[in-house]
Amino acid sequence: MSSAINQQASIPDQFGTNLYLTDPTLEALLVAYLPSELRTHLQPYLQKLGELAGGRLSELADQADKNPPQLHVRTRTGTDEQSILKHPAFIELEHFAFGEFALAAISHRQDVMGWQGQLPPLVKYLFTYLFIQAEFGLMCPVSMTDSLTRTLKKYGTPELVAKYLPRLTSLDPATLLQGAMFMTEQGAGSDIAATTTQAMPEDNHYRLYGDKWFCSNPDAGLAMVLARIEGAPEGMKGVSLFLLPRTLDDGSTNAYRILRLKDKLGTRSMASGEIRLEGATAYLVGEAGRGFVQMADMVNNSRLSNGVRSAGLMRRAVSEAFYIARHRQAFGKTLIELPLMRRQLLKILLPSEQARSMVFQTAQVLRRSDSGDKQAYALLRILTPLIKFRACRDARKVTADAMEIRGGCGYIEEWGDPRLVRDAQLGSIWEGTSNIVALDVRRAILREQSLEAVQGYLQQLLAEAHLDQTMQAQFHSAQQRVFALAQAAATPEGSELTRRAASGLYNLVSAAAMAWESHHADAPARLHLAEQVLQHKLLPSDPLAADAPLSAEVEALLLASAYR
Question: Cβ(297)–Cβ(151) under 8 Å?
């Protein structure tokens, strides 16, 4: 009898669920974004990663979170030989991410996952999105390795590219070189012009001297570093970009030390530390004095990855919340039958789906931009900071609200909810805080004519969405108001409006994207989600008015689209 009672009262546990198969929207969206031959080819890989993310990878991520890396500064015989000891669980996660699923190499190899030819950027972000639902911290080294490789290929000398590219894109952990970027100094966080690290020329390389304050993946095989060449002018024009190897050609360790590892709120599985450069050998990348411009390409790529990570976190939080709501009973009903719970579920579903649509759309724009489309570049320059700004902030609330749905157990570290909440704080801080990224949106409007690019982009999305006259009028009204605010934010006295303008642009573009998806993916729930964005985030409304409830049919459709 007691056994039956315990079984009936047990807390719902989603562990072991395939996170790809339980996400009906993801499979539907691929119809709109990928050609059928590629979709068919990727299905077994997506199903395998979905199974791993819901099981083994989640298990490893919990272990790695509870056993953070440790810095060892000497061997037991007294030799100064620094090393970062990673937990076996984290090492196994690395093998999956860098090796089996090639997340850092997809954009740089022609033979990944059995596909002959270059896979589009969306595939990388699709698999990253699934992997992140299990493990967030490792995706920082993965993203930096991918971004460093991209920057090296774009700006590095042929000799540097030939020397390091094979190992940066290796799928073998024994030969792989991971990447990092060392930019931040105590007095030069987002203000790159205040960089004080010095670069002294010597033969065909430079010697770097100075401290870097926040360096994730500090023992990476290669790092991109910002420094000021001896005699260079003050300000941004005096900052150059350098490639810093961890190990020199003779096998010795380069002349920089990891002073300590950071004790972080989240991403505990992954090491972040402080670096002291003591005459370290480094190589100039690109043109001297244009370090920030060249590093910006790497940073923007990482910012997009930040948005992908936040989207993945939100999806995992939503997935857990829906599973609980469907399987836990209270007051004689399952939670999802209770009106307030359904409302709360829809409130966390909406920003999660907005972020997913923005990621998919931006991945497509990135592909066009990399092929030389100047209009796509102007669009990419604004979509990337929009995702970084809004999706990363939304993740903080979505993960916390999802934790509440689990109740008291959600606050216990034995479950995954606290890790999601802790990790979600990262997105709004690294690679530029919210203010910095919102100002980058403003900069794109002023310097890249990105608002004009958005206008043409919206026109195309909405034309292909085949909307009725009512929704067309709503979009037209919202666009007029958002663009007026964005233009006001771009004036000399309007910088304080920048955050509001960025949120407005993000909501407008994501609503248009979901309306487009509704038609191209035959997913009617997307149109209703777009309508919710318009009504609750863009159009004038009375915060104290009693909103008309969703029809039972629409509500059921939205809830069904979230979890299979």
Answer: yes
Tens digit of pLDDT for each residue in 246-282? 999 999 999 999 999 999 999 999 999 999 999 999 9
Structure-token pair, residue 324: 């609980």
Q: Do the beta carbons of residue 278 and residue 364 sit within 8 Å?
A: no
pTM of the predicted structure, to 2 decimals: 0.96
Quick one: tokens of 369? 């931009």
pLDDT tens digits, residue range 437-485?
Answer: 999 999 999 999 999 999 999 999 999 999 999 999 999 999 999 999 9
d(CA 510, CA 514): 6
User: H or E element: which one contains 503?
Assistant: helix 498-520
Give the alpha-carbon dihedral of 90, 92, 97, 99, to 10 degrees. 140
Dist. CA 515–CA 94, nearest whole Å? 37
Taking the CA of residue 72 as centre, how many other CA atoms within 13 Å lie in the half-sphere pointing to its CB?
11
Specify which residues 46 forms β-bridges with. none
d(CA 259, CA 210): 12
Q: Residue 190 has what pLDDT?
A: 82
Place of tokens 């969206």: 29
Handedness of CA 41, 46, 49, 55 (dihedral sign): negative
Question: Which CA distances in Å does 90 have to 69, 137, 141, 285?
Answer: 9, 10, 12, 31
CB of 314 closer than 8 Å to CB of 351 = yes
Contacts of residue 300, defined as CB under 8 A and 6 or more positions apart, other chains included, come to 380, 381, 384, 385
Closest CA to 228 of 273, 272, 187: 187
Q: Mean pLDDT throughout 110-126?
A: 96
CA distance 534 to 281: 54
Chain centre to alpha carbon of residue 254: 31
Terminal alpha carbon distance of the chain: 32
Query: Strand 222-229 and strand 239-245: pairing?
Result: antiparallel
DSSP bridge partners of 226:
241
How do 198-202 and 222-229 pair as beta strands? parallel
CB distance 71 to 258 below 8 Å: yes
- Summarize the chain as % helix, strand, coil (round to 5): 60, 15, 25
> For residue 7, what pLDDT band results from cuts at 50, 70 and 90?
low
Distance CA(153)–CA(227), nearest Å, equals 20
Closest C-alpha among 508, 505, 512 to residue 466: 512
